[in-house]
Amino acid sequence: MKTITNFFCLPLFLSFFWSFSQHQNLTPAVNIKTDNPLKTELDLEIEKYVKKYYEDPKAVGLSIGITVRGKDYYYNYGQLEYGKQILPNNKTIYEIGSITKTFTGILTAQAIVDKKIGIEDDIRKYLSDNYPNLQYNSKPIKIVNLANHTSRITRIFPNLYERQEYIELNPFSNYSKKMFYEGLKNMKMDTLPGVKYTYSNMAVNLLGYILEDVYHESYFSLVRKYILKPLQMNNTTVSLANADKNNIAKAHNSNREVTPYWDFPELVGTGELRSNTSDMIKYIKGNIAEDQLNISLSHKYTFEGEEGSLGLNWFFHTTKNGNTMYEHTGGTGGSRSSLEFFPELQSGFIILTNSLANRKILEKELSALVEKISSK
Question: Molecular function (GO) terms listed (predicted)?
């Protein structure tokens, strides 16, 4: 394995994407297990796209959930663990990585509704220490800047990977809250907040800390209370202690070797949630319905830039057909995820994988397919 000492400088890490080992001479999987019945036009299209995905030799397991105007479809391929020949299902737990940030966006909206925070507040109002560095030309970072990646807070603080305790395969596992605030204190602003988009894991983590402080509750307690329970997402979690040990998709590096799930013991709101396609379809449908005020408020546009538009940790795009698409992706050291939905079309999909295989083509093909069939 080739060690990279400063991988946080790479663009791939913007969405928690990274391969911790070099790709060896692997051969693509053949005779891939699946529960796809191959009966409908949708079944056949999914099969065609997934076959292309499995041309990437890094691919191991894959679960897809699709909802079209209230009707749900699930497709599973490959293996829970390479070499074990056990097919995943719609209850299989995967890491969802940075899709966690959309939950943080909804909690931010909840805190605004509850008047715990103000979206235009200077974030230093909620910090116990003095941070003169969290402004530029006297313009402070606001809550909204933490939730739309315009804060200019460094995406990863150098003291995370420079520390002696750093573990490459599980980079956040022993990074403490104290270390985080030391990194925040040493950070220097380089331009005005609210002007330029720069993806920042540390900004969203700070937002998570602020939410915990104003509610005097843990991040996951807030997620459970305001999102999971209302949407009946009973299998989404941080800890795997109560999960079915026989139905957890093992994460795999680029050599298809099992690699640890990333642990976030003292970082919150950035990438620690684990879920399955069944729960994530409930999440998509809840976001489409907007029956909860916290969800609808998280969808309000807060920034327009060259990269697209943002709400509270949601990315918005307009398709070539004129439909609005909401999305977020995620990744860890051995998992990838993609979530998209079209609110006007009441449709969307989730892709969960347990490998570092490139799912971007599959994501684009599914996006076009779901938009097409839901427009009929």
Answer: hydrolase activity
The answer to whether position 104 is within a domain reads yes
pLDDT (tens digit per residue) in 48-81: 999 999 999 999 999 999 999 999 999 999 999 9
pTM above 0.90, yes or no: yes
Please list, in sequence order, all residues whose beta carbon lies within 8 angstroms of the beta carbon of residue 254, skipping any fewer than 6 positions away: 19, 20, 21, 22, 23, 24, 58, 356
Phi, psi of 84 (to 5 degrees): -95, -15
What 3-state DSSP class applies to 352?
strand
Amino acid at 339: L
Q: Enter the DSSP assignment of 233.
A: -
d(CA 276, CA 61): 13
Cα–Cα distance measured from residue 204 to residue 154, given in angstroms and rounded to the nearest whole number:
11
22, part of any domain: no
98 phi/psi in degrees, rounded to 5: -70, -5
Determine the distance from the C-alpha atom of residue 292 to the mean position of all C-alpha atoms in its chain, rounded to a whole number.
21
Q: What is the pLDDT of residues 308-329, one digit of tens each?
A: 899 999 999 999 999 999 999 9
CB proximity list for 322: less than 8 A, separation 6 or greater: none
**What angle do the packed helices 360-374 and 41-53 form, to 10 degrees?**
170
Q: Two tokens at 74?
A: 């699930």
227: exposed, middle or buried (Cβ count in 10 Å: 0-12, 13-18, 19+) = buried
- pLDDT at residue 293 greater than cutoff 80: yes
What is the rounded CA–CA span in Å between residue 42 and residue 256? 29
For residue 4, is it within any domain?
Answer: no
Q: Give, as one character, the DSSP assignment of residue 20.
A: S
The string of DSSP codes covering 295-318 is: HHHHTS--EEETTEEESSS-EEEE
Tell me how many domains the chain contains.
1
**Which residue range forms the structural domain that includes residue 271?**
43-374
Tell me the C-alpha distance between 348 and 88, whole Å. Answer: 21
**Cα angle 164, 165, 168; round to 5:** 105
